[in-house]
Amino acid sequence: MAVTVDGRTDMEKLIELLGEPEQEHLDFKEDVDLSKSEDKVKFVKDVVAMSNCPPGGYLLIGVSDSGGPVKPIGTLDCEQFDGARLNDLIRNYTEGQIQIIPQSHEINEKKVVLIYTHHEGSGLPVPMNKLGQYKNDKGKDVVCFRPGEVWLREGAQNVLLRWSHWDMLLRGRDQRIREEARADINSLIAELSKALRGGPGNISIPLTADMADEAFVESMITNLEIGSDLRIGQFLASAIATDGNTDAFCQSLDKLTIVAVQALALGVPDITKRAVDTLIKIYRQLDHDAAAQKLEVIVRAYVIGAAAVRYRAWGVIRDLVLHPSSAHPSLNYVYSSWIREGQVKASRSELFPGDSRGSLMIPSARLLAIEHAAMRPDLPSVDTSADDGYDSSDRLLDSLCQFDILYCLVVAAEGRHHGEAYPASSAFRQERANPALSLVVSNAEVRRELLPESNDAQVAQAIHEVFELAKNQSMQLQVPDDWWWNPPWDVENFIEKYQGDRS
After folding, report:
1. Do 242 and 136 share a structural domain?
2. What is the three-class DSSP state of 451?
């Protein structure tokens, strides 16, 4: 699966990256000694090449080519990888601005330095501005790069810029130019929408997938305030009709996600339900082999589910999860949840590194919500540089993990077909998912909304099964021993009360 480049450098991100093979946006280095000229100039070239490929990427120091940490604690000089020192080093060899963020970690008695390389904001590649060379063992000068050269990643290798690369390099810049060209008209639409609110008449404003997020939200709110959901219905119909093989597919999914989340924020549950139903209809009309498109849909489902957690819309979570989906028309095998069917399809198509290591959709959903503020109106700012502590604040990631564990719980308790849900949250700290389980056991109303067909004994059994599955999955990862261990005390007490002591 392609690496999700989201700027995070915490332990959870490290675990996620260790499960991936080397690729265009991920590079492993067993050792780098920046006191040596050879290592220094090669490191600079690695960083610049990675940065020149949008959206940037990650370098892991102290990791073998196979993705395993190899440097015992005390054998890797982490002081060399000070952020200010590294950024000064890079600027000394380049014309443009390249920013990197390093963070060191200890994992399984090994030391690893995780370095995030940011893509330069202009959309243009950064050339070298001076000679990068070193002396080999025989004392001869070896040139690593020359002034004016442009280096970038191609697969897992650094290569010089070729004509064939320009389309990839300029795609993002062209998109930004198009967005800037639309900015004025979108701003006009947004201002017009605001002006029409509370005014005379019932003038509705069309909703289209290519509108800027801000203009789309303002138009949606205006239509709701004048008491008309006609335009929203028209948009939902157009989203269903979007061809899954076109560039407009993801654009429509994004706006559909915005409709669902904004309706949650505005307290319009019927609109949220219609948006969720539309999302599922889009999923069902895709070809059974369209794994990549199905993955795009369920990533948006996770964004909506996380928002439902934050807005405490437990019925929305149940409605989002419990939709059976067949593995294939020719097979008599039906998954209890369409989300699981999409996960399995993506995994078998190698869009994930494998279920045994699975953060699955969570990183992609988090990045998508970061890129679209309209998908998180309750989180206007998201800290992408949370530290590695258990108390690191990332409400967006926490809500994604909590939705994930609740999705598993709903399937375990009330799924009527095959395919238990996979706890992708097991790839993250247990503390992120715990609040959801604690709320379920402490609040009978939450249980009634989330699991209306289950009594307390059945809920306790389902929680026990889900937690044990998450715990077992976490043990298969290269993570600290206490990643997932015991349920919170209130959850454990609930299980013991209704199911007996299972220790």
Report:
1. no
2. coil
Q: What is the mean pLDDT of residues 462-476?
A: 89
Q: Residue 473: pLDDT above 50?
A: yes
Q: Is 344 helix (H, G, I), strand (E, B) or coil?
A: helix
**Residues 240 and 352 placed together within one structural domain of the fold:** yes
Domain stop point among 161, 184, 213: 161
Q: How far is CA 441 from CA 403, 425, 430, 449, in A?
A: 15, 19, 17, 13
Judge whether residue 466 has pLDDT over 70.
yes
SS3 18: helix
pTM higher than 0.85 for the full model? no
pLDDT in tens, 289-302: 888 999 999 999 99
Domain presence at residue 275: yes
Cα–Cα distance, 351 to 385 (Å, whole number): 26
155 and 236 housed in the same domain: no
Q: Structural domain of residue 262, as residue ranges?
A: 229-379+396-499
SS3 string, 137-169, reads CCCCEEEEECCCCCEEEECCEEEECCHHHHHHH
- Separation between Cα atoms, residue 68 and residue 500, nearest integer Å: 41
Residue 490: band (very low, low, confident or very high) from pLDDT cuts 50, 70, 90: very high
CATH code, domain carrying 53: 3.30.950
Q: What is the 3-state secondary structure (H, E, C) of 36-58?
A: CHHHHHHHHHHHHHHHCCCCEEE
Q: What per-residue confidence (pLDDT) applies to 503?
A: 43
Q: Are residues 347 and 484 in the same domain?
A: yes
User: Are 235 and 127 in the same domain?
Assistant: no
To the nearest whole number, what is the mean pLDDT of the chain? Answer: 85
Q: Which one is predicted more confidently, 151 or 192?
A: 151
pLDDT(501) > 50: no
Domain termination residue (choose one: 116, 141, 161): 161
The residue type of 193 is S
How many structural domains are present in the chain? 2
Regarding beta strands 141-145 and 132-135, do their DSSP bridges make them parallel or antiparallel, or are they unpaired?
antiparallel
Q: Is 116 helix (H, G, I), strand (E, B) or coil?
A: strand
Give the distance from CA 303 to its chain's centroid.
Answer: 9
Distance from C-alpha of 15 to C-alpha of 12, rounded to nearest angstrom: 5
pLDDT at 53 over 90: no
CB 196 within 8 A of CB 223: no
Which residues make Cβ contacts (< 8 Å) with residue 472, sequence separation at least 6? none
> Do 155 and 237 reside in the same domain of the chain?
no
Q: Is 196 domain-assigned?
A: no
Residue 312, pLDDT score: 96
210 within a domain of the structure (yes/no): no
Same domain membership, residue 238 and residue 156: no
**ω into 55 cis (within 30 of 0):** yes
Per-residue tokens: 161: 């810029």
Residue 180 pLDDT: 65
Does 195 reside within a domain? no
Residue 57's nearest CA partner among 117, 143, 142 is 117
